[in-house]
Amino acid sequence: MTFQKRLWDLVVLAIFVFAAAFATAPWFAFRALKAAAQYEDVQAISELVDFPAVRRSLTSELNDAEPAAVAPAEPPSIWRDPLGVFKRAIEPIAPREPKVDRYLTVAGLSALTRGYPPGMAPTAAAKPVTAMDKAKAAVTGPHAAIAYWDPNRVRIAVKRPDAADKTTVFTFQRGKLFEWKLVHVRLPQDER
């Protein structure tokens, strides 16, 4: 073989490796997020998640599901409902915790990456020790699947192991060439 032929083969191989790395980078970002949440690596999670964008998207998603109140209730009157007035006076004034906060914790992200809502995920299986156990754990599903791929945005779907009709979709957006960040989480329809 001549030097030019070998050089051309190396260039083609480099282009192929670059294209493969570019196309699979979002999937590796999802796997890194799943591992960081499982092992409670807060620094890695902060590098992989755009928290303001995810908070905005989840807040609008969770608030859309709330039924609109027909009319605000009239405050109780001391003449018609004296106990109701006293009850309202001693109720805590602090607002309720936003629903989105439980999704943006380490445990919440860990449950979401496994397909469960926060607080509903079963305990994680013990880490496999032998090579055969590792192979079985790698083969058993459910697996994350790429639902949409674009050079700048990728959606990765995770089906719940106990209910295949419930799918959580993670949207990653490209920042730099190989840097992908989570910007949106779409919950299953009945959990919004």
Annotate the secondary structure layout:
Layout: H1 3-38, H2 42-48, H3 51-64, H4 82-90, H5 106-113, H6 131-139, E1 145-149, E2 153-160, E3 163-174, E4 180-186
Antiparallel strand pairs: 1-2, 2-3, 3-4
Helix pairs in contact: 1-2, 1-5
Strand fraction: 15-25%
What is the subunit organization of this protein?
single chain
The chain-level structural class is alpha+beta
Low confidence ranges: none
Tally the beta strands.
Answer: 4
Would you give an account of this structure?
With 192 residues, the chain is α+β, with helices and mostly antiparallel strands. The chain has one domain. 43% of the residues lie in helices and 17% in strands. It is built from six helices and four strands. The chain has helices at 3-38, 42-48, 51-64, 82-90, 106-113, 131-139; strands at 145-149, 153-160, 163-174, 180-186. Helix 1 (3-38) packs across helix 2 and helix 1 (3-38) packs across helix 5. The termini are far apart.
Entry summary:
The protein is α+β, with helices and mostly antiparallel strands and 192 residues long. The protein has six helices and four strands. α1 crosses α2 (42-48) and α1 (3-38) packs across α5.
Fill in the keyword field for this structure.
single chain, alpha+beta, 4-stranded antiparallel sheet, elongated
